[in-house]
Design brief:
This protein has 381 residues and is of the alpha/beta class. It folds into two domains: 9-57, DNA polymerase, domain 1, CATH 1.10.150; 62-380, Alpha-Beta Barrel (TIM Barrel). The chain contains twelve helices and 13 strands. The strands form two sheets. It has an eleven-stranded mixed beta sheet with strand order 12-11-10-9-8-7-4-3-2-1-13, with helices on both faces. Helix 6 links the parallel strand 7 (150-153) and strand 8 (184-188). Helix 1 (9-18) packs across helix 2. The protein is elongated. It starts with 8 loop residues before the first helix and ends in a 31-residue tail after the last strand. Bound molecules: S-adenosyl-L-homocysteine and iron/sulfur cluster (SF4). Iron/sulfur cluster binds at residues 110, 112-114, 117, 119-120, 157-158, 189, 210, 333.
Length: 381
């Protein structure tokens, strides 16, 4: 059985034709789900009996295991349970006055094993299918007062390790939900073959490359995939993506106190990226590390992060420091799931912790992991 947001338009047409319904009904369903972006049972233009029959034939793929909204009212997070096998995945919604961004998971877990990442520490459960990816965005939209304008593949998983369903869902976001390709960001730890494939696609999606270190020796210790695709290869592939159809590329750098935040490392990073030949030049996003139970690192002080940013900027690289978001709801990669497993009774929660730091008026690209969650109880010793 297909699921509600997995089913292709042609299959929906065929199903409704089989039930003796007109094509007009299929149009109404599709427009309701993707243009109006409302739940099936809210498409009141359809007879109730038909809505019910469709709901039975095309169930949602995800049920809510946990939902939380931060005290700022602008960041929400869902922990979903997949109907098909109970695996858990996370989605985050981040709003500003200008945009609403949904951060989606592309896999349940991740096989890449980055040492500082909660998702990497837990390993891979399985790939998500197109319906499970699309549904995260649509279901977040159902609870969002603004129109969702941006999607970032920065939740659980490595999107380029699940290329087919990820790209199909990109096409659905663009074609059915009407999003601009540039507002869709795929973040990769550096899966070079996937990056090269991306460079060949016609939709100019934005690419984020998770770099985290200015040299291979250090990157090897943080990102195991670096031994297969070292920095030079990743930068080459990133330039290919940037060169193709003027796509935007950014470099993500999780700043970890005493590990990759020294000034000489900032100088090396600035030098490396100032020489990067990609069209449009390099843009770096610094993300102060979000502490996780399986990694003993912590975020540097804000002063150290600012000094690091200054040094990267000097040779002409643009740098943004990401703000804290969703501090009270663990709105970071893999963290809600980890908490749900660690704690006794997960249940719907709304923000009760102190107000997180204010978000700047304009956030270049919303991202769920741009949060710093100093929850002392969860920090490693
Ligand atoms: N697998 C992809 C996309 C998902 S991770 C990738 O790695 O790019 C999205 C981003 O979150 C990556 O830049 C990743 O490095 C970052 N991230 C993961 N764990 C983090 C943590 N504990 N603190 C800060 N950033 C983290
Ligand atoms: Fe996977 Fe990205 Fe986490 Fe690395 S940082 S383990 S690639 S989700």
């Amino acid at each position: 059985m297909s699921t509600r947001y997995e089913v292709a338009r042609t299959d929906l047409d065929a199903l409704l034709a089989e039930w003796g319904e007109t094509r007009y009904r299929a149009d109404q369903v599709w427009k309701g789900l993707y243009e109006a972006r409302i739940p099936l049972d809210a498409i009141t233009a359809l007879p109730r009996a038909l809505r019910e029959r469709l709901a039975g034939a095309l169930p949602e793929a995800l049920t809510v295991a946990l939902a939380a909204t931060a005290a700022d009212g602008l960041t929400s997070k869902w922990l979903w349970r997949a109907r098909r096998d109970g695996t858990e995945i996370e989605t985050v919604l981040m709003r500003t006055s200008q945009r609403a961004t949904v951060c989606v998971s592309s896999q349940a877990g991740c096989a890449m094993g980055c040492t500082f990442c909660a998702t990497g520490q837990a390993g891979l459960d399985r790939h998500l299918d197109t319906g499970e990816i699309v549904e995260q965005v649509v279901r977040a939209q159902h609870d969002c007062p603004q129109r969702v304008s941006n999607v970032v593949f920065m939740g659980m998983g490595e999107p380029l390790a699940n290329y087919g369903p990820v790209w199909e869902s990109v096409e659905r976001f663009h074609g059915d939900l009407g999003m601009s390709a540039r507002q869709i960001t795929i973040s990769t730890v550096g899966v070079v073959p996937g990056m090269r494939r991306l460079a060949q696609e016609s939709l100019p999606v934005t690419l984020a490359v998770s770099l985290h270190a200015p040299d291979d020796a250090l990157r090897d210790t943080l990102v195991p995939l670096n031994s297969r695709y070292p920095i030079a290869d990743v930068l080459d592939a990133a330039a290919e993506v940037a060169g193709a159809r003027g796509r935007r590329v950014s470099f993500e750098y999780a700043v970890i106190h005493g590990v990759n935040d020294r000034i000489d490392q900032a100088v090396a990073l600035g030098r490396l990226l100032a020489a990067w030949p990609g069209a449009g030049g390099a843009h770096v996003n610094l993300i102060p590390l979000n502490p996780t139970t399986g990694f003993s690192g912590r975020a540097p002080t804000p002063g150290r992060v600012t000094a690091f940013a200054e040094a990267v900027r000097r040779p002409g690289v643009t740098v943004t420091i990401r703000r804290n978001r969703g501090v009270d709801i663990d709105a970071a990669c893999g963290q809600l799931r980890t908490r749900a497993r660690d704690e006794v009774t997960p249940g719907p929660a709304s923000g009760t912790a102190p107000e997180p730091e204010a978000e700047p008026a304009s956030e270049p690209e919303g991202r769920a992991v741009s949060v710093l969650a100093p929850r002392p109880a969860r920090m490693s010793p």
